[in-house]
TrEMBL record:
Pfam families: PX. Its main location: cytoplasm. Residues 1-90 form the PX domain. The gene is Snx10. SMART domains: PX. Belongs to the sorting nexin family. This is SNX10 protein. It comes from Anthoscopus minutus. The keyword Cytoplasm applies. It is a peripheral membrane protein. The keyword Membrane applies. Residues 123-133 have a biased composition (Basic and acidic residues). One of its GO terms (cellular component) is endosome. One of its GO terms (biological process) is intracellular protein transport.
Length: 164
């Protein structure tokens, strides 16, 4: 995102459909006068092995998020920031927002970014990339470690969105 509302330009988290349902309910309860976009319907015959079903749901969830992120009032909701920038469960997000944790919303987002979390399959890809870079005689390192902008949780950015 290019929104100044977000601490990080990119983040990578995995969310289940039920977590999107939770987010929509919380956003709606805090912004009663706003008509929130609908989530894609939850079909009783949804099949994770059917690429068409998965892609249709993914597109619907993407459209939901894009519409939510266009509303300034919704952007002020801490749950939205935690949902998009941490891997906290809905219960942990609620506890954080209500002040029942030792960490603040900003702390949670910063901690998740600093942990440089990756998912197991992405760890393997990263190891392969590292081995390739280590064997490249022209590669160099500053020794300063990754910057916040270089932490992407293994997500690939589209060429149009990459900054130089």
């Amino acid at each position: 995102t290019n929104s100044i509302c977000f601490t990080r330009k990119t983040s990578c988290v995995r969310r289940r459909y039920r977590e999107f349902v939770w987010l929509r309910q919380r956003l709606q309860s805090n912004a009663v006068l706003i008509q929130l976009p609908e989530l894609p319907s939850k079909t009783p015959f949804f099949n994770m092995n059917n690429p068409n079903h998965v892609d249709h749901r993914r597109q619907g969830l993407q459209e939901f998020l894009e519409k939510v992120l266009q509303d300034a009032l919704l952007l002020s909701d801490s749950r939205l920031h935690l949902f998009l920038q941490t891997q906290l469960s809905p219960e942990d997000m609620e506890a954080c927002v209500s002040g029942q944790t030792k960490y603040s919303v900003a702390d949670a987002i910063h901690s998740f970014a600093s942990l440089n979390r990756r998912f197991p399959i992405e760890d393997e890809e990263r190891k392969k990339e590292k081995n390739y870079a280590d064997s490249d005689s022209e590669s160099s390192s500053s020794g300063l470690g990754p910057s916040d902008d270089s932490i992407s949780c293994g997500c690939k950015a589209s060429p149009a969105s990459e900054e130089s």
